[in-house]
Specification:
Helix content is 39%, strand content 14%. It has 259 residues and is α/β, with parallel strands linked by helices. Helix 1 packs across helix 7, helix 3 packs parallel to helix 4 and helix 4 packs parallel to helix 5.
């Protein structure tokens, strides 16, 4: 993990669960980023207290309000990040914000489908678009032509339940809107990898494993992975990503997953 070597990173959904875990570990690595931008919907809310408690101890941590379904909020967040970077680019964007609705196939609704898709799929698209100029700038300022997370990267937090070929946990929970949104997110990362490769930006989707978070616990059984173990694995994977990995779907241990 110490080899990640990014000057700046931004994580959405950073107030709890996997997002908070990523922020914590980024602030603990030996060569921690000069800037860690922790973005969440309500930084002053009850669910962001643990994140707020980190700020006084880490001057390189900047907490940014953002609602990933609101283009105005996203553009305001991008402007704040740009101001902090003072002419430098953003190396690593982790689109982690997401929601899940535990609803069956027979009871799924238009409202739920729309809300989950807006957060889990359209949100990462809009956030990536807004931060693309900063990612391009980071790539242009790099001394290497090879793709890597140290240069410039978009990482979308996906899930194995979005795999069409490998249907997992169907008997535990159907998660219709969540499954569909993550399948669409996987297509988005493939499209981003094709569209942004010319700018020197690596794009990949990660499955964090079945993790002990609010979403993971909603399946009715205790997940096997802690947030710390999952995040440590994913950060190790980010260290190793290269040209061959752009446009891929990997798990927290770096294993390729079926689309």
């Amino acid at each position: 993990m110490g080899g990640l070597g990014v000057r700046s990173a931004l994580v959405t959904g950073a107030n709890r669960g996997i997002g908070l875990g990523i922020v914590k570990q980024l602030l603990q690595i030996p060569n921690q980023p000069e800037w860690v931008f922790a973005a969440c919907r309500d930084p002053k809310g009850e669910q962001a207290q643990e994140l707020q408690q980190l700020a006084p101890k880490h001057p390189n941590l900047v907490i940014i309000p953002v609602e990933v379904t609101d283009p105005v909020s996203i553009q305001a967040a991008a402007a704040r990040v740009r101001e902090h970077l003072k002419g430098s680019g953003l190396n690593l964007l982790i689109n982690n914000a997401g929601i899940a609705k535990v609803i069956s196939l027979d009871t799924e609704t238009v409202e739920n489908m729309s809300q989950v898709y807006a957060t889990n799929t359209t949100g990462p698209l809009l956030v990536s678009q807004a931060f693309l100029p900063l990612l391009k700038k980071a790539a242009q300022g790099s001394s290497t032509s090879e793709l890597s997370c140290s240069k410039a990267a978009i990482i979308n937090m996906s899930s194995i339940v979005g795999s069409i070929e490998k249907i997992c946990f169907w008997d535990n929970v159907q998660y219709i809107s969540y499954r569909c949104s993550k399948a669409a997110l996987n297509m988005l990362i493939k499209c981003q990898s094709l569209g942004y490769r010319q700018y020197g930006i690596l794009c990949a989707a990660l499955h964090p494993g079945w993790v002990q978070t609010d979403t993971g616990n909603s399946a009715g059984h205790k997940p096997p992975l802690t947030v710390d173990v999952s995040v440590q694995g994913m950060l190790n994977v980010l260290c190793s990503l290269s040209e061959k990995d752009t446009g891929t779907f990997l798990d927290w241990e770096g294993k390729a997953l079926p689309w």
